[in-house]
Amino acid sequence: MTSYTHPTAWAAIADHLHHLGTDVVFGLPGDDMALLGELERSDTTVVLCRDQRNALFMATGYALASGRPGVCVIGKGPALTNALTGVLEARSAAVPLILIADGTRLDRLGTGAFQELDQLTAVRPYVKWAARVDHAERLPGALEKAAALAVNGAPGPVYLELAEQIAAEPVTRSGPWRPATPQRPAPDPDALAATAARIAAAERPLLLVGGGARHRNTGRRIEQFAERIGAGLFSTASGRGTVAEDHPLHCGVSGLYTVAPMDALWREADLVIALGSRLEETATFGWPEDAAQLPVIQAVLGEESLTMERPGAHVLGDAGRIVDGWAGLLAGHRPADAWPARVRAARAALVQRAADRAEEAAKTVADGAVPVARVLAALDRAVPADRVLVQENGLQDMWSYFFPHWSLGSGGGSVVPSEQTPLGFGAAAAVGVRLAEPAGRPVVAVVGDGAFNLFRSELPTVADAGAAVLYVVLDNGGYGWLQSNLDRVSGTGSRFAFTRPRPTGTEGLTSAYGLGYRRVTDADELAGALADGWRQVAAGTTTVVEVAAALADTPPGMTASAGDFPEREGPQPDTP
Predict the structure, then answer these.
(1) Nearest residue to 178 (alpha-carbon basis) of 131, 135, 146, 136
(2) Which CATH number fits domain 3-169: 1.10.150.120, 1.10.10.10, 3.40.640.10, 3.40.50.970?
(3) Residue 19: exposed, middle, or buried by beta-carbon count in 10 A (0-12, 13-18, 19+)?
(4) Whose CA is closest to 75, among 12, 136, 138, 117?
(5) Alpha-carbon gap, residue 144 to 528, rounded angstroms
(6) Are 96 and 148 in contact (CB under 8 A)?
(7) At CA 156, angle to CA 154 and CA 158, rounded to 5?
(8) Does residue 185 have a cis bond before it (omega within 30 degrees)?
(9) Beta-bridge mates of residue 313
(10) Contacts of 86 (CB under 8 A, 6+ apart)
(11) How far apart are CA 372 and CA 365, in angstroms?
(12) What is the distance between the alpha carbons of residues 127 and 123, in angstroms, rounded to a whole number?
């Protein structure tokens, strides 16, 4: 067997990244620039960030958009602790990610060495696997195991620490690098047959599509399966972009983002088929309180994603293979017409009610601010339909979670924060999404001003990376969600404040880095500003369109803030 010798450990890492097909590396390396020296001789794009957390967010956005591992390289000590929020998000979003960090040299451990930290203990709760490499001969196997664990099973982040003393040592491996292609396990035939029988017996099924079904909807197999069983089709927030939202059975986003009249479908359903969803709290918010009313068939890749809070059944395996297996077993199934007709009627009623709610919300917006519903409508007209919308989860930008105020056709995409919703994720992740997508595909980030302010230190990174993104910043003066909760507790006369009207300073920063900028305070100027912004982005220049938003301009169905979640209006009269 032929052996291969690399002159240094970092040379071996660079060669393994090339083997993986890694075209982008994100990060903020430590003082040892050896990896950058190795990558100088490759065509790999290196995005040098100002903050390690943002580097992880960018790598996560890249992985969500591409389905390939995101790769991030950082230093040691505080570099790792800065990165942990990003690692937490990657784990919660179940994305394949490889984090490589420096580590204190072996002979200095326990001596109070510069930036010494027990990094393995710090990072292990957030990753699938963590290892430290103290000896050069162990590096090839560790790299291969990291790649295999990141992409297989339920995907997730892995951590590899390189002890400083081996950085410059030669590394020999026996044989070529192993392939790191994900393996897609097939479901157990008995579990598949048992769950298919339960689906066939259901009269009013709902199909819930989660983030675990991303990149597994080849040939629109999921929509075709929904048609076969006559199921209403919902997405979780993280599952958006998997199915076409212009499909006549599509009903919007589940849980927290389901409003009347769609919420009635959850009270009437007799079975939920959860495809690639961990059934997080936001996805099940507002479901019938009596768990026995609504059995759930869970179809997930890994057993750690199962929840046993509701009756039902489960089948483990790749989402695409499970759907194909069910479709084959139910080839002769013909649903009754009544339930699909009920779903389509609820969808039609929602479209009408959404228009009414947007008009009602606009009445609460004072002069000098722009209704968020109008922002979304203008954005829809200004940017081509195959755009990817990347966003946060704040007070105003949540409007786009509520279908049909924002709708994804068969060509549209979506990247959102996971259940952790770290502030600033969407603003940073948009850079990774842009670098993962084909050059001509638009990427738009809709973010609140609080999140964007956390991200602003990365504007030079955006400029250096040439990642042209259209940022639509909804400016309500700070942290709108926190302010709305404070108002609930203290009224409007509190001596504390999370929002204040003040100049943002964004124009000066964007100008300094050669980026585009517009501020909109008049709804009549909105369409032109977004159209101009998109033209700049299409020509290769990141542009920020800052839109003044009113604190009272809350999403549909939300009557007040109430801690983590909003208070919602009660059930509405059923639609026919």
Answers:
(1) 146
(2) 3.40.50.970
(3) middle
(4) 117
(5) 51
(6) no
(7) 130
(8) no
(9) 297
(10) 52, 53, 54, 55, 56, 57, 59, 60, 72, 422
(11) 9
(12) 7
- Separation in Å, CA 57 to CA 89, 91, 215: 8, 11, 20
Residues ≥6 apart with Cβ < 8 Å to 278: 210, 212, 300, 305, 307
Q: Which residue has the higher pLDDT, 233 or 335?
A: 233
- Render pLDDT for 357-388 as a digit per residue (tens, 0 to 9): 888 877 778 888 999 999 999 999 999 999 99
CA–CA distance, 424 with 432 (Å, rounded to integer): 13
State the pairing for strand pair 157-163/129-133. parallel
C-alpha dihedral (197, 203, 209, 215), degrees to nearest 10: 60
Phi and psi torsions of 382, nearest 5°? -85, -30
* pLDDT tens-digit series, residues 147-169: 999 999 999 999 999 998 899 89
Mean pLDDT of all residues in 128-140: 96
- Above 70 in pLDDT, residue 393? yes
The whole-number average pLDDT for the span 476-501 is 75
> Domain 364-568: which topology?
Rossmann fold (3.40.50)
Three-state secondary-structure class, residue 403 = coil
Which candidate, 404, 468, 50, places its Cα nearest to that of 261?
Answer: 404
Q: Which residues contact 18 (CB under 8 A, 6 or more apart)?
A: 42, 44
In 3D space, the residue among 254, 250, 256, 220 whose CA is nearest the CA of residue 236 turns out to be 254
**Architecture category of domain 189-347 in CATH:** 3-Layer(aba) Sandwich (3.40)
Ranges in the chain annotated CATH 3.40.50.970? 3-169, 364-568
What's the pLDDT tens digit per position in 501-548? 777 788 888 999 999 999 999 999 999 999 999 999 999 999 999 999
Token reading at 531: 């159209």
DSSP secondary structure letters along 518-553: EEE-SGGGHHHHHHHHHHHHHTT--EEEEEE--TT-
